[in-house]
Specification:
Shape of chain B: elongated
Strand content of chain B: 25-35%
Largest sheet of chain A: none
Mean pLDDT of chain A: 87
Structural class of chain A: mainly alpha
Helix content of chain A: over 70%
Number of strands of chain A: 0
Low-confidence stretches of chain A: 275-280
CATH architecture of the largest domain in chain B: 3-Layer(aba) Sandwich
Order of helices and strands of chain A: HHHHHHHHHHHH
Low-confidence stretches of chain B: none
Largest interface: A-B, 24 and 29 residues
Helix content of chain B: 25-40%
Distance between the termini of chain B: 29 Å
Radius of gyration of chain B: 25 Å
Distance between the termini of chain A: 21 Å
Oligomer: heterodimer
Mean pLDDT of chain B: 90
Order of helices and strands of chain B: EEEHEEEHHHEHEHEEHHEEEEEHEEEEE
Number of strands of chain B: 20
Shape of chain A: globular
Structural class of chain B: alpha+beta
CATH class of the largest domain in chain B: Alpha Beta
Number of domains of chain B: 2
Strand order of the largest sheet of chain B: 6-7-8-3-9-10
Radius of gyration of chain A: 22 Å
Chain lengths: 280, 353
């Protein structure tokens, strides 16, 4: 389905006509100012690095491995986050239970906590009896690739859950109920009515979560380590190169991250545009 | 058919209490009631969206009280229509058939005659947000009818529309019913809607069905003052009844005497619809007037006010107590401040039980 579903009757989105008012000038001026800041930063980065550093970075096996690992771990994390965010967001949105407010606060906690704290907590947990048992009998997390995914998941999942809950809030419950009279089971009603209507909000949450996961390095340095060709991701590469004074290489790697992120964002926007306007 | 027995449902301070109702196979039944009388709750019990605390619901001869909504054989059009905004009109109508995993060819076969019947072929590719209120209602109706339900439940199907679309859709509903003969329960707060669509009706008040039957019965022979008022039978008059030797009775009120059919005794309340009253001119001769009054079962009354209602004139009389009459004569035929004889035909008078 490539056609675009129109928005509901409530007028949202672009206003008709092109009247220039003081108000529109002010809002557009702020937009221009913000864009200027972003563009200036990008320009200075590009100006500071040189083609040689780029070539060096792209030719380096370590950097390429880190790039691949960044893409791989962040995608796995985001898949896990969506897998969790959909049922958790639905439960938070639709069910009221004792302690609901407390549960919401706990779900939000990783958003306000410094990410390093999560890495530290993970390290502490895996030094306990239970943690050790998991390490021995199940998956080895400490200083390993699964550890990277675990860190990214824990730090970023809240963004996905928050967005999914908000998206489900915006879906009219009555439509879900109505689907039951139109031959659906609860599960079918969710799959055919609620989920498609919440889709854009969930995708937006996944993008934010993914961005966080990709940029994460603090807890990884503590919990997953920064071993080259093993647990080094691009965000840690930037940090490592910086710490040994190779600013040009750090910037070149950062530019690679930026390019990858831009491609991903444009792709996601293009894929979800057909149904835009469903959720606020 | 629908058969409800002893339905109880408590939600907060409101309750459906011991609600029973029968809608025969192929009937178009209009359930009337003021806002807040529990009509929507009742219809949600029928759909299975709400579980009653007690009582039973039978649809199409099956006890569906414990069944999930999808297994009840109901086609439900809620007040908000509930078109799925992420699906086109065609996908909306096909929705219940796809839920039942019918083959694509069967879906096409089912849709075509329905789309023709409702005249919505030109809307199939559109999105619900781009439809008018009347179009949306028709699409919702098509979607409810697509799985060929045993009963069709319509919750205030036309109340969101403007007056002319409302009349048009009521005629459509009537026509569709005559075509498909699907047992229909139409919930409404409008007497006009009931008169233009249904053949039988019930009146709900405070979580109970207080009277059900043929529409003409509800109109002419209300079972209570509430029903009389709901149908805007404005003349509700307390009187003293005395049985007459010929089998009829005499009603005395505000110094007037009327004869009616049937035996009644003691204090009673009678009703007569405003359109049943006849307004006669008086003469200066009081003896002639008295005689005319006896012959025509009428009372002398002073015309206080005339208001033009388009199709008819509403006349407010004072006959010791207020009497309202509707007349199709032009407004110039009446003069406020004049005395008239207002006839209350015996056969139009109904004494409340």
């Amino acid at each position: 389905m490539t056609r675009r579903a129109p928005t509901s009757e409530a007028p949202r989105g672009p206003v008709a006509g092109r009247r220039v008012t003081l108000f529109s000038i002010v809002t557009v001026a702020f937009l221009a100012l913000f864009l200027l800041m972003v563009v200036v930063l990008l320009a200075t980065d590009l100006w500071y690095t040189d083609a040689k550093s780029f070539r060096e970075a792209l030719a380096s096996r370590e950097v390429l491995h880190a790039l691949w690992l960044s893409v791989f771990t962040s995608l796995v994390s985001v898949a896990l986050i969506v897998l969790f965010a959909v049922p958790v967001g639905y439960a938070l949105s639709r069910y009221r239970f004792p302690g609901h407010a407390l549960v919401e606060a706990l779900v939000d906690l990783p958003i306000v906590l410094p990410p390093v704290v999560i890495g530290l907590s993970l390290l502490v947990f895996f030094s306990t009896e239970i943690g050790q048992w998991i390490q021995r009998n199940w998956i080895e997390f400490v200083y390993s690739v699964p550890g990277i995914i675990l860190c990214q998941f824990l730090v970023s999942a809240s963004f996905g859950i928050r967005a999914a809950a908000a998206a489900f809030d915006s879906v009219d419950r009555r439509l879900e109920d109505l689907a039951l009279t139109l031959g659906c089971t609860r599960g079918q009603a969710f799959w055919r009515v609620t989920l498609p209507m919440a889709r854009n909000g969930i995708v937006a949450g996944a993008i934010v979560a993914w961005a966080h996961a990709v940029g994460l390095f603090g807890p990884l340095m503590i919990f997953a380590g920064t071993t080259r060709m093993h647990t080094e991701v691009l965000a840690t590469t930037v940090q490592l190169e910086l710490s040994i004074g190779r600013i040009e290489v750090a910037l070149a790697v950062a530019m690679i991250m930026l390019a990858a992120a831009s491609v991903a964002l444009v792709l996601v926007h293009a894929l979800t545009r057909s149904r835009r306007g469903w959720t606020t | 058919m629908i058969r409800v027995r002893g339905l109880h449902l408590r939600i907060g301070a409101f309750a459906l209490r011991d609600l029973s109702l029968d809608v025969a196979q192929g009937d178009y039944f209009v359930l009337l009631g003021p806002t807040g009388s529990g009509k929507t709750l009742f219809i949600e019990c029928l759909c299975g969206l709400l579980r009653p605390d007690a009582g039973s619901v039978e649809i199409g001869g099956r006890d569906v009280t414990a069944l999930a909504p999808r297994l009840r054989g109901v086609g439900y059009v809620p007040q908000h229509q509930g078109l799925f905004p992420h699906l086109t009109v065609e996908d909306n109508i096909a929705f219940p058939l796809r839920s039942r995993r019918l083959p694509r060819a069967v879906i096409g076969e089912r849709l075509a005659p329905l789309v023709d019947l409702l005249g919505i072929g030109h809307l199939l590719g559109r999105w619900p947000a781009h439809l008018s209120g009347g179009e949306r209602q028709k699409v919702a109706l098509a979607r409810a009818l697509a799985p060929r339900p045993d009963v069709l439940l319509l919750d205030e199907p036309v109340s969101a529309l403007d007056e002319s679309s409302r009349e048009r859709l009521c005629r459509e509903l009537r026509r569709i019913h005559e075509e498909l003969h699907v047992t229909t329960l139409h919930v409404s707060h409008s007497v006009e809607e009931a008169l233009s669509t249904g053949n039988r009706a019930g009146v709900m008040n405070d979580g109970q069905v207080v009277q059900a039957g043929a529409l003409t019965d509800l109109l002419r022979r209300p079972a209570s003052e509430f029903v009389a008022r709901f149908f805007r039978t404005e003349n509700i008059i307390p009187a003293e009844a005395t049985p007459l030797p010929d089998g009829g009775s005499e009603l005395a009120f505000a110094g007037h005497r009327l004869t009616i059919q049937g035996k009644h005794e003691g204090p009673v309340t009678f009703v007569i619809r405003p359109e049943s009253l006849q307004v006669l001119p008086t003469t200066a001769d009081s003896e002639v007037t008295r005689h005319a009054s006896r012959v025509t079962n009428s009372v002398p009354a002073l015309l206080n006010h005339v208001s033009d209602r388009g199709l008819y004139r509403r006349l407010e009389f004072d006959a010791g107590l207020p009497l309202i009459a509707f007349s199709t004569l032009p407004a110039e035929a009446f003069q406020a401040g004049q005395s008239y004889l207002v006839a209350l035909p015996a056969e139009a008078i109904h004494v409340l039980p």
